[in-house]
Amino acid sequence: MSGDVTAAETFQLALYRARRNGWSGSDPYDGLLSPFASVVTRIGSLPRFAFSQMVLRFPWLRRMASPPPSVNPKALALFLGAVTRGRRLIGEVRAQEFANELLDEIEKRSVRVGSTLGWGYPFPWQSRSFWAPANTPNAVVTSMVGWHALECVSGFGETRATEMAFGAATFLASRLQTTREGEGGALSYTQADRTRVVNISALGARLLLRVALLNRDRNLEALGTKLLHFVLGAQRPDGSWPYAADPGGAWVDSFHTGYVIESLMQIRSMGFSVPIAVLNRGMAFYRRFFGEDGSARLWLRDSAPLDAHSAAQGLITFAALSSWEDATPSMQAQAGQVASSIADWSLRELWIPSEDHFAYQMRKGRRDEREFLRWVQAWMALAMATAGSLRSAKQPVPAAVGVA
Question: What is d(CA 54, CA 90) in angstroms, rounded to the nearest whole number?
Fold first, then answer.
């Protein structure tokens, strides 16, 4: 790791900074929270999409638009996963306190739909395909909350986290659309659309199948298996997965690819059928996003930005492979080296010591230091907790960082 700061230290510093800020922060896609967005919101989908993208892409416009900070359930879930995974780094008692606080915040932001629990983004947003008002429950946030709630159960034995996870799985199964795709099916993003996003179905399958095993629920298992078949069938010959099977969804990026691979490894570890050849092709393709120095590109083209979100997911994915029981010893060793190089690069190039947060991206050697809580800090907290825990398994537990 970097000689100036370690993964364990940045995990703690980012965690405490988020807590001091009330778990509230900015997001790349929160532009429509701007006071100036009310007119745009009424005009239609294209102006909404354009305004959001402009606020993201032009920092000067973001400063003018001034969208207020918000508390994002997905960020809360990722921080929950981070304190669960990094509990040895901060001490079991303190980690339990953080977990309880985060569960309180997550619970307050749940949306009950019948007997189910769903979570969404705290801002309205316009995708290429559909419109979602603020707090609309969606598959990706609900899947992340459910998954990290179960991780919390494994780490701390929190009963209410089990209830959250089961409520989330029931929401995915009973409230979202499933579009038939050959032998499989694709899970919709929200209740109001029928999009066929590959990583959404992978994340949904991962949660549904885990809950199905815990509850011995054949209906959840059947749906999770159907989503799994869609994901497996969507892989291309080069090992990649498109973002979606929808028109305009053929593009491929780094972190969504990582979502799919991590989910498939975990599903196979649960005992479900995921061909090892699929994962081998996927990992070979995924490795192309990362430089020998650990740098993480968002896209495969040389001009692509070096991206914190991609680095975080890359570290998490390769760390998972380094301890995956179905990987050969040489694959495990190589994956551990890649995870370590990504951590080193992130600490060296993206960490801002004076601000206690990670930068967003690097383009042509220039660093974009905007602080995005859900998109960067929460993901990096989970990634650095992962890196710190890997090291602490081989070394004495580092002292907790002295911050309040």
Answer: 39
Q: In what order do the strands lie in the sheet with 306-307?
A: 306-307, 361-363, 366-368
CA–CA distance from 94 to each of 6, 62, 89, 114, 121 (Å)?
Answer: 20, 36, 10, 35, 28
Asked if residue 352 belongs to a domain, the reply is: yes
Residue 87 within a domain: yes
Of the candidates 169, 254, 276, the one whose C-alpha atom is nearest the C-alpha of residue 214 is 169
Q: Which two tokens stand for residue 183?
A: 């032998």
- Same domain membership, residue 248 and residue 159: yes
- Do 40 and 136 lie in one domain? The reply is no
For residue 222, the one-letter residue type is: A
Q: Tell me the C-alpha distance between 341 and 318, whole Å.
A: 10
| pTM for the whole structure | 0.94
Percent of the chain clearing pLDDT 70 (strictly above): 96
Give residue 389's pLDDT band: very low, low, confident or very high (50, 70, 90): confident
